[in-house]
Amino acid sequence: MASTTPAHCGLGHPSPPLKTFSDSGAPVGSSNYTTLTLFPVAAQHNARIITVNRRNYPGSATDTEEDLALPARAAQTAPGDAGIAADMLDFWRARAHEIFDFLADGGFIPIGWSFGSLWTAALLAFLEDFSAPDVQLSKSLRRVILYDGSLFCLGQPLPPSPPPQPMIDPAPMRPEERLARFDDWITSYFPHAHPATPESLRAATAAPLAHPPRTDPDSARTRHTPVPHEAPPADQLLFRATAPHGTAGAMKERWLHRVPGQGAGGADWRGLETWFVLCEKTYWEAVWGAHMMGREIAERREKGEEVREVRILTLKGANHFVSTACG
Questions:
Q1: How many angstroms separate the CA atoms of 136 and 266, rounded?
Q2: Which CATH class is domain 7-325?
């Protein structure tokens, strides 16, 4: 497939950058099953579940210094630079193309979990730009799911006086201490009010539930790829390169406010379902992101604007690691 992505976006790997981490296999005796592709109970539901690790996670390609040159430059550039903002959109178009290249004909539902929901948001934003002569994805891509991603991934603003978040806490601490605090926070269960308010977010975050207990922190740590202490983890770098330049918000404008029609190769994406799945007792960033997304959609419709159909669903009693807890 010919790539529409600029060369500086880092698609020069000799092999596909995304690799399958686990695969439940096709249901026995079925030829019309749905494949759930989860970007970090199959047979009885006529489904096949494939988990895919994004770059820098076990099995997939590791970013080189050249791959991360643009994010590194963007992270050091003050907001308001139009050139960097455009370059970061190109960067995420490249990440979306990697997912597009990974998918194949046959009833797929890509799911981006946690920070991975930014990848599925990018797929939604740039899907119209891609085409595959031998694959009719517009007929087999059934829906796209953003699964418990943060407000940042949804292009939503912070609440007033936001609760603490260990990874962006300005207090000085050793990298291993910051990571340990993050693991404790992200694996906890929080008694959120729904709908959320800034006050309820702060109250819930200050009082995580004792029961059920936190998800085994080892399950959380498996997502961290060891890196030299002097180099920032790639996810942190991507956050610092993307957030200040409004990239997630610009992608949201493409996938939420612009109802797609005929895309590249004649593909028609107008009927593509989009879900946001929220875990009820998850970290506050996801709760506020879902709340603000629902409010924005309602306000846009009241003004008569055309917006994409987005279903916001809640997994009752679940924390951010419910998928790990379920095996």
A1: 10
A2: alpha beta
Q: Which residue is listed with tokens 């987005």?
A: 310
State residue 140 phi and psi, 5-degree precision.
Answer: -115, -10
Alpha helices in 16-157 (DSSP H): 69-75, 82-102, 117-126, 137-140
Q: Tens-digit pLDDT profile for the chain (327 aa)?
A: 222 222 233 333 335 565 555 554 554 455 554 555 555 533 444 556 667 777 777 777 788 889 999 999 999 999 999 999 999 999 999 999 888 887 765 567 888 899 999 999 999 999 888 866 555 666 677 789 999 999 999 999 999 999 999 988 889 998 888 888 988 999 999 999 999 999 999 999 999 999 998 887 665 555 544 444 433 478 889 999 999 999 999 999 998 876 555 555 556 666 688 999 999 999 999 999 999 999 999 999 999 988 888 999 999 999 998 876 554
Q: Are 125 and 96 in contact (CB under 8 A)?
A: yes
What is the strand order of the sheet 273-279 is part of? 19-23, 47-53, 34-39, 108-113, 143-147, 273-279, 310-315
| Alpha-carbon gap, residue 64 to 173, rounded angstroms | 27
| Cis, bond preceding 195 (omega within 30 deg of 0) | yes
DSSP 8-class letter at 188:
S
Q: How far apart are CA 268 and CA 128, in angstroms?
A: 8
Residue 143's SS3 state is strand
Q: Residue 312, exposed/middle/buried by CB under 10 A (0-12, 13-18, 19+)?
A: middle
Residue 36: helix, strand or coil by DSSP? strand
Give 42's DSSP letter: -
Task: Provide the 3-class DSSP secondary structure of residue 299.
Answer: helix
Distance CA 93, CA 159 (A): 28
pTM of the predicted model as reported, rounded to 2 decimal places: 0.82
